[in-house]
Amino acid sequence: MMRMDLTDFLRSRAVDGFIPWAAQRKAAAAFDLTEREVEETALNLNLLPLRYRRNQQTISTAQQLRLFSSRVAIIGCGGLGGYVLEILARLGIGTLKAVDPDVFEEHNLNRQILCTFSSLGFPKVEAAARRLEEINPVVRLLPVQKKLDRINGREILRDMDVVVDGLDSVPSRMILADLCRELSLPLVHGSIGGWYGQITTQLAGDDTVRKIYGATDGQQGVEQTLGNPSFSPAAIAALQAAEVCKILLKEGTLLRNRILFVNLLDMEMVKNEL
């Protein structure tokens, strides 16, 4: 009897167009492949991994393949960045680059989803790799335990499709925004402070972040004085992740040349032109 090929194997184990994780693992073992390679084949066959079933009414299988093939860099893996990483991994973004020089400290426990008592003292990017392995093993996580600067930034951002700002100071944001502008990379900016947050999207050729913060590179972010409760980074990170998804899928209306202010204390959102 002729040995079944991977295509036939996957089709024979699909249920209503969905491939269970157990079948992906069996295919990987049977054909000496990684689960990631199996998933790519399945998506190209228009078979959707079962864990994305609840995406399907919003994101088609073809679009899921596009997300799988995408590369997103998250700069800063603390409050905002940690939540963005988790949301994008659950969404099925195929390659995520996590960039952060720091280790977790006890005061991070109140708001940073990647921070646990067992991760205190460990690099944030290592915690990100462990977390993503648990929730979506086919996502390729590229950890970079460095502070992005004007010297290393071009290499760090090379080959990325979208960049997410999870930073906490104006100077760092300015550097990131300038690099993205030079490299013609879309940048989804977010910042938080207390009950408040803001997001905007800077596309190729735009100078959006500098319009927001002006020419001053010496200011700390407002979060340094207001602090942040646990819900603020979760709320703004979710909005950032939605912008990333829209950029990659080329759908919807982006916050280009606009800024969305979020007031969680009074449950108000205000969108202004820039």
Automatic annotation (TrEMBL):
GO biological process: cyclic threonylcarbamoyladenosine biosynthetic process
Pfam families associated with the record: ThiF
InterPro entries: ThiF/MoeB/HesA, ThiF_NAD_FAD-bd, Ubiquitin-activating_enz
The THIF-type NAD/FAD binding fold domain, residue ranges: 52-268
Alphabetical keyword list: Nucleotidyltransferase, Transferase
GO molecular function: nucleotidyltransferase activity; tRNA threonylcarbamoyladenosine dehydratase; ubiquitin-like modifier activating enzyme activity
Protein name listed in UniProt: Molybdopterin or thiamine biosynthesis adenylyltransferase
Native species: Syntrophus gentianae
